Structure of Quinone oxidoreductase:
Amino acid sequence: MVKAIRIHKTGGPDAMVYEDVQVKPPGPGEAYIRQTAIGVNFIDVYYRSGLYKFPSLPHGIGMEAAGVVEAIGPGVTEVAFGDRVAYAGGPPGAYAEKRLIPAAQLVKLPKAVDDKVAAAIMLQGMTARYLLKETHVVKKGDTILVHAAAGGMGLWLCQWAKALGANVIGTTSSAEKAALAKKNGCKFPIIYTEEDFVARVMEITGGKGVQVVYDGVGKDTFLKSLECLAVRGHLVLFGTASGVPDPISPAVLAAKSATLTRPGLYHYIATRKDLLANAKDVFEVVKNGTVTIQKPQEYALKDAAKAHKDLAGRKTTGSIILIP
């Protein structure tokens, strides 16, 4: 038996139950992993709350972790016993000491990337990569807006976008977070609790607006994000931390010939080739210092509920990991 967090009924943070589970030997195409560090992300909150649906209940939760391969099933060629690996993706179940996972979803870790860093960078790093280089190709001289700029995703986007030559505007909730965002590539931090971020964006851009808004907040920022766009600007809604935005008419986009996208990581790493290429870029920007990773905030696996409360309460900056 191994310890894991499972959901028996969706709801608040206390819906997560720390309990013993039985893990079967790996079947065809599967690997059995002893997990050393587990990433915590807003997608976990969406599953726990019921916004995203589990295939059945009770069910494990969590989409990202790093660890060591302890066994492989028939036909597995992607990894071998003893490999250090990481992953980001379904099925949910990462909040566990050990687990089974399709071997094709695993990426071998370079020696220069330790397990705690790996658990904190896979989902956010690969998300940042596709957002900046595929969903909207950020170019030198672009001006972009990043919401929650001091959060885990925000810090990735600010640093990587700056390296691509963009001028980064970012929203934060406090002076402390604004300072952190500025230190990590955000040229123009805006404390949205103290000033109207739409007016400030227009002031910074001379009334032109930004080429792209990266919005992981959702309901609270969505309509104002549209106002921040330049003509032919692109609103990339990649998360809904504050809730799902209300529906809008396509005619709303016509005022600026704007485009709206709601992308998801899994469509960008659907093939093994795409997964490895994406992960390779993430490891490279970490190794060469393009993106500096804050020391992840650590919680014990059994304290996952507290980690969720702190994440939802915006009490954290950077990444969160659970240690089994």
User: Anything to note?
Assistant: The domain at 2-122+272-323 is CATH 3.90.180.10 (Quinone Oxidoreductase; Chain A, domain 1).
